[in-house]
Amino acid sequence: MALYFSNYYTFLGLTRILLESILPALILFPFLLLLAKNQTKVKSIIILVLIFWVYQILLKAPTQTQHIQIIHSKWNWTGKIFTITFGTCIYYLIRERLKPFDFIGFKKESIFLKRPLIVASLPILLAFFSYFNPKTEYDFETLLYESTMPGIDEEVMFRAVFLGIMLNALKERISFFNLSIRNPSLILNGLLFGLVHGVQITEELDVNFDYLMGLGTFFYGYLYGWLTVQSRSILLGVFSHNFSNVLIHLIPMIK
Q: Which listed residue, of 98, 119, 183, 253, carries a Cα 20 to 30 Å from 72's Cα?
């Protein structure tokens, strides 16, 4: 009986993962098709969606089944290791398809531009508002995790891979009620980032959306996307992402 319930809850957890993995891409898929440059780019959009699904499953599966965990911890080290490895492999497999939007590497001529540096500092400055959060106990593992995993994983996948594909496949400019919008890929990339963090499937398999988390991560997703395009590299985004995450956790620990 205990084994039955264990298997049932594992199955339920994996079902939640599948739904949370599929929904964000399904919501965005019609907009991606609508903004495709031409019919030949539909294949790239389908590839993007498939990569996204695999990425999300690799990220979330270790949280539901201990058998595949490399590191047993309250933080999802295993999922992040899986997705960083996966993202790196995917990048090298599709690198030629991404050009001229190849954002991996150090672009000396653009990474020290004034505007990208100012924008990169914004999440770091906003992180100081965590001073008003409740005080927490010092936790070195939390700081180590936040200083390494999230920025590398999410900037490689969302900016180097997903944004690179979008910029190649989608229109460079659209008109909306006489308003000309340049690089709609940045908006859709931000939306995908927001949906990933905002869409939640409950244990009863109901769909919820955390509007505060979704809107906040849409803002950061758009900002990191803009930063990547302007600097031609994900490096500033990785630094800003990880450093701001560390500050958000460190400041309540030491205040």
A: 253
